[in-house]
Request: fold
Amino acid sequence: MRPNQPSKAIPTTTSQKTAYPKNPTSGANINQGKDTKEVFTKKLLICSQALDFNDESRFSQEKAERLKILNELQEIIGSPSQMTNLIIPNLEAVINMIKRNIFRPLPIVKKQGLAGETGMDDEEVIVDPSWPHLLPVYEFFLQLIINEAVDMKSLRSFISHKFIQEFLELFDSEEPKEREYLKNILHRLYAKLVPRRKMIRKAITDTFNTLIHETYKFNGTSELLDILASVISGFAVPLREEHIVFFHNIIIPLHKVQTCHKFHNELLRCSMLFLSKEPTLAFPLINGLLKYWPFANYAKETLFLAELLDILEVCCDTAKLEPLLPKIFKRLVRCIASPHLQVSDRSMCFFENDFFLNILKNYKHIAFPILVPVINHLATHHWHKLILESLGALRNIIRETDPQLFEKYANDKNSPYLYLVKDPNTKAEERAVIEKQWQAISQKAVENKPDFSMPVVPYIDTHIVGHYNGVFNGNVLYVD
Reply:
């Protein structure tokens, strides 16, 4: 974030004709060292007023006075006597003041420049002009929760399901500092309000379900997963059914979210914490990774490769892993043959791992028919010199595992996995032959049954995606 960047106008719900109320207290009262209950209540009312922060010239005096009062409120929290005499008896008014400030429609913040423009930072945002006035409110709220004078029973009545829902919506804020305060506050609430823990977990689950099934982006996903990591580390063993369901329904599907790369580190931490509690969860997690494996997103693909290797090292029972090995080796050989160098290089790192090499030796009958034909071809014909050298070393590693079996599959010209490394023209010719055969079969079907109609699965020539995803089917418009 660049602090010197100019702010853009952000819509506000405050009417431009709304007049800010006169200060209900005199300057002398506001600046007194000790407040009476009446003065304290009036200060809360001043801090609860809605102001237009988009226009710096409007209500400048009131804004300055408001900031001054908010700073005074933080000083009050540091005084045990004033906490007892002012804040505790007026806790409802204090919470209402906080709610009126932070519970608001989040501003629509637009990034400057076009998406993908050179020099643009994905995390660069415009600062919310109201943030300087929200910052002391969040700091006051955080100190209020931390304070030992505020007991669980008095605080619990104000932290309702509606409060938690609205609080979680704020995590979508574009302001990183706000999300950090929200994370710390929610974490403290979870630790302090034991009877509300299940409700908080349920609200977080609902937020993640919305992200997984409805939206593709939620700014506070990393922060919420950071909180969950601390929560998961405290789960008792064996895991309760509720937590296992959460792992299957939330942690695994979060991998398919389009913006997963932005919170993958936190997601990986949560995943590995679950596996440390229950290692058998590694198998459904591997299945989920293979199911949601990204395509045309090479950065995300390298993250998935690193996670897959981490998970494999946790799998103690290789016998249970055997049914998944064909899928794993198929995915791995696809990545080795990837046109993206980072993906190809990262996938070959598997063969530097002792645990993976042990799997390769114990399950040669599964791995060799899949890996050997492709790697042997690439080690001779790959277009990049550095990758070519790595592939040559990889071929030697596999050959040393079982030379006789390696030679058996090295020259297998009929391997179904060689299509990954075939020349595009050869692929097109083979597909044209298959299309011709299919058309001949369809013609015979029409001759035998005049009312025969072509099925709409999976490809037909009236779809844009038809004839092996071809674009020369008359349904694509080219614009010069």
